[in-house]
Amino acid sequence: MPGPAALAAKLLAVWHATGREIARHCGADAAQFLLIEGGSAAVLLSIAAPALLFLLPLNLYAGDSILDDQFSKTTINHITKGSPLLWIHFVFTVIVVVLVHFGISAIQERLRITRFRDNFGNLSDPSSNSTAIFTIMVQGLPKIIGADRAVLHEYFQYRYPGKVYKVIVPMDLCALDDLANELLRVRDEISWLVARMDSRLLPDDDYDGGEGGLGGGVEQGGWKGIRHCLICCWKWWKGFCADVMAKFGYTDDERLRKLQEVRAELENELADYKEGHAPGAGVAFVMFRDVYTANKAVQDFQNEKRRRIGKFFSLLELRLRRNQWKVERAPLATDIYWKNMGTPRLSLKLRRVFVNTCLMLVLLFFSSPLAVISALKSAGRIINAEAMDNAQNWVAWVQSSSWLASLVFQFLPNVIIFVSMYIVIPSVLSYLSKFERHLTVSGEQKAALLKMVCFFLVNLIILRGLVESSLESAILKMGRCYLDGEDCKRIEHYLSASFLSKSCLSSLAFLITSTFLGISYDLLAPIPWIKRNLQKFRKNDMLQLVPEQSEEYQLENQDTNGLQRPLMQNESAYDNSSMDNPEGQDLSVYPITGSSPAPKQTFDFAQYYAFNLTIFALTLVYCSFAPLVVPVGVVYFGYRYVVDKYNFLFVYRVRGFPAGNDGRLIDTVIFIMRICVDLFLMAMLLFFSVQGDSTKLQAIFTLALLVMYKLLPSSSDSLQSTLLEGVQTIENVVDGPIDYEIYSQPRFDWDNSQG
């Protein structure tokens, strides 16, 4: 444990660390995450001022509804239905929308320092020198192009004469990875089979344990005879089975011959990869000499795809399957899962259909542990109702017989929910996203983020607000309510004073728990501590084909002073060279593996983004219903900002992450933040439609506000003519090997070790 002086120095360094320093020393992902947290805290702080100064006194002293508890008097329920005072809540709704809109725009502007290009492909940071800004990625090519890439180069030279710098067509690395795994498996089987055949040539004394064996002189009397009899019976049985298998042609010699034939075929296929004659991955990276041409190429191909009807293709374009192309700006070379390069489209679609179908079913029926427990209870009652009644009686008796048992049963459901929502469900969704085989790390994180946001929104907002255990039960109740023709006021029930007060109180309690329990859990950082201790007992394998599963890039193996050096005074700083420079990195990280060239992240950005977005949505949705929710949300984001900033600098920090990325993940985060505003407006629309004025003007104006907000520009980015006029050329950036070309070339030293 550090001493008080060292801890104070670290906290002071954390306080003074700027966004650019975080991006340079911890990576663009960490800087973007902290900017989102700090921006969310600032936005909610601006909302907290009118909420506490105007709405809270309004609800407390101007309301005249008869309510029992003091907390309900602080909510919107204290104002009677149809009261003119609700217009103040509508004005507050407008203020919230305006503040959040300009707050998100300010966050986007600050995020520019962590991106090497904007949404239009222009440079966000003029000092950026990444090769990705000159490169486009073409998907949908025929795999035969891998052996004859000159055709593709000729086509782009024809479209953009003199502007093409290089065309890189990777080999089918997905098939190569499968080939390598199969070859290693066959070699292992051959080695094992040869060893077993050689063991049969050993003398019988060595096999059955004669006087000179390991058991000689130890066993006495009848035990020795029994052992000898059992060994003879075992040898006879093995010989009998071998004779039977030999009659059907299943001998060890025959199996060895077939395995050797398979090995020869696999080695011939591997030789094609070594000689460069293997099929391509169906993907190409086209590098242009300037940024303007790269942006123009993306726009040209995307516009042609929209106007495909009535277009005729030349013979060269038909040969290149021009109608199946998908052209986009290339991601960073370090952002690509090179092992997935070449995965068939059908396989990708089937994987994603399977994962999304499973996700929808789980969201509908088993979205939370409470839903699983309810389903198990229902199934048990169908199978044996008497046994379930006895079990419930036993549980009730245990709770009443001991205070310890009562305490355990009281906190056990909350512990199960915390473990499932904080550990189990994010881990499962991360593995499902990895199963989809995304081409880039950011694409995988984006998929995991969307899945986690859906889970958290359903469990922590929708089901918590409806006080239901699953969506299926809520849908069934709503269906019976409206389809049976009864006089049912289900929406009115959800927005009634008692129900809404319970929902607000539950959400406030959850926010307080998340603020002080969840963030304190992250402050202790138990997961990295456990991983570092387990790493000491991990077996050191001689052959590691997938370093992302075996290399943790532990913080303890790095120079501790190096972590503090760029942040402390009187110390030399890091080299300010860009992390995107190929010469500044180890370009031999990628053998034939499934890993990205970047080191493995020890911080799950998708999980924490999803949870933070859920808290942001929860605070916005209830900011007008219960103003006390807003300051708790401010404390949550402010507290988490400090804790995460400290963890990034001194706990989770790993060297090697680029200081700028293309912002695909952060664009999704910004999009979801805007969706949170939509949820807030929809909640206010439902409230005003039920509890508002009799003329429904408040509901109509809220709907108009929602439409106007959706029509507002979602980004402040615009074409930067100054940057396009002063075009940066690729010759000023490339000084040595090209990262795309080096990362796409697999290493075969693992094969040389096999002899």
UniProtKB/TrEMBL annotation:
Record-annotated CSC1/OSCA1-like 7TM region domain positions: 351-536, 601-686
Subcellular compartments: Membrane
Occurrences of domain CSC1/OSCA1-like cytosolic (ranges): 134-340
Family classification: Belongs to the CSC1 (TC 1.A.17) family.
Protein name as catalogued: CSC1-like protein
PANTHER family reported in the protein's UniProt record: EXPRESSED PROTEIN (PTHR13018:SF114), PROBABLE MEMBRANE PROTEIN DUF221-RELATED (PTHR13018)
Gene Ontology MF terms in the entry: calcium-activated cation channel activity
Membrane topology: Multi-pass membrane protein
Record domain CSC1/OSCA1-like N-terminal transmembrane: where: 11-103
Transmembrane segment boundaries: 41-62, 86-107, 353-376, 403-429, 449-467, 508-530, 609-639, 668-688
InterPro entries per record: Csc1-like (IPR045122), CSC1/OSCA1-like_7TM (IPR003864), CSC1/OSCA1-like_cyt (IPR027815), CSC1/OSCA1-like_N (IPR032880)
Coiled coil segments of this chain: none
GO cellular component terms, A-Z: plasma membrane
Keyword annotations of the record: Calcium, Ion channel, Ion transport, Membrane, Transmembrane, Transmembrane helix, Transport
